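Figure caption, in words: inputs first, then the predicted bound structure.
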Amino acid sequence: MESRFHSVKLLEDKCKGCTNCIKRCPTEAIRVREGKAVINAARCIDCGECVRTCENHAKAIMANSLDDLQEFDYNIALPAPALYSQIGKASGPDEVVWALEQIGFDAVCDVSFGADIITECTRRYIRGNDLPRPMISSACPAVVRLVQVRFPGLIPHLAKIESPMYAAARVARARVGEQLRIPDDRIGVFFISPCAAKITAIISPLGSEKSYVNGALAVSDIYGPLMASLGRGGSSRPLYRGSGLGFGWAMNGGELRALGDMKALAVDGIHNVIGVLEEADSGRLQRVDYIEALACQAGCVGGPANVENPFVARVRMRDVSAGVDAGSMATSLQLARDCIDEFGEGYFCMHEPIQPLAGMELAESLESAIARMGELEKIVAELPGLDCGACGSPTCRTHAEDVVCGRAIETDCVFKLRERMQQMAEDLLRLARTDLPSMARRDDN
Amino acid sequence: MTARDEHALEMDFAVGRHDFAAAGEVASRVKQVLRQLGIASDLVRRAAVATYEAEMNLVIHSNGGKVVLRVDSERIVVEACDLGPGIPDIELAMREGYSTASDEVREMGFGAGMGLPNMRRCSDSFKIDSSVGRGTTVTTVIYIAEPGS
Ligand code: SF4
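Bound structure (iron/sulfur cluster present):
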């Protein structure tokens, strides 16, 4: 099994081996073994649920650091719209742009502008394609990976459109390259990410072979330096800025609001997303044209690499979105359409197919998988069904899976162990009670 | 295929009459099982849709019954069996849009008369055995194409 890159990592020394994270993981990717959590790389979708759940902060998001900017001659920051939701009301977007320049960037291009481009592309895509309904937005990379791992039957439903970040990166790169005559490989483009899934998507891209983004910084990592600069209060304009609707993409329902009137459904929070995808996968949502699905509750403002409470952040995001006046809103939207005309619509479509990802199979061949499934069912029937997690697997069923795949033994279950011990004790007692030829017969047996 | 064959899998899922709260659970379970067997996703998808419809038929129309999943190296079989009331006119029941679901059930958004036709669409072979008073068995077969065959 190929092992894929993941930005979500375990910090072993902080992990106490509790079982909180294994219960929340949407792909049952985590086990506790020898007192530490272990993430199965084939299953992990980098949703960040475990980062959020872990009270010991033993799950971390690996990202680039500001030092990595030194590799390039000219660095562009691509702040996710959600970044602006993390900063108090006192500082407007232009102050944040200025602060980004202070911490090392030469220019800033708002991903909200990329969102305006992608909104228009998506609108045309939905109209122009006779794809199976419902189409599913591929804006959230954790959701795309979830589909690849758990719902491969829905892969044909994914809208093969690049993300707002990708669109912003491409237009920013082109503009800087052209106007400043900087060779493309000397331009560093860094996404300021609210989540782990985007960081993973940058390091191993989903649809396109080449990533136009060189790296990603976690909002939580730059928050300190950013706040320090903000206090000094200058202000600066980005290369491109999106409309209020573009900023709105960071909130649940925001993509749909930007897309406008449609038979659509919005869902946020990875476990809620699973519920909706289950429905779609059984053919029950054919009357819905489009699904906006975001792994984080409240949308990207609730990303695991953020610092603010998701609901507080959403209110701020709404203010930022509403703060873009009607005039500049119209300009942004027109500019987005111009970019599509200039680059061509196909420019913002994914060109590589999205493949299913293996990770759930019990065995390589169908025959042995069938044999193992039979065995698994027998084991499950014998287990208490409490899903206590003490065995290190999230549920009794996953424990049985681990047993038939040789990753655990039955007595890892404390109840099985107890049963076995009781059996042994009874055997021992029986043995102890057997009469010896040299002794007188006892009457009690 | 026999149930004793170690290369075949057989699993039963009980479905209760009017158990709308649990509707869809069997389809999810079946999907999970097939996925764990490594079955191609388009086949899993078809089996899941067939199972969902089978399950809903049992919930809406039957006095309760079960869905049986059988898998061997050649095929996936989804069978819905119930103990009544039985279908008086199978040809009519197969017609798209025909439904005997009560208004109450239709108000919940079910019973559009697409269940059996959907099941047939998802299957490579499809059979209904029914007798009024005794019950109905609907069998859906999906072949697993072996690579190169
Ligand atoms: S990031 Fe998500 S999928 Fe990966 S181990 Fe954590 S909870 Fe599971």
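The longest strand of chain A covers residues 187-193.
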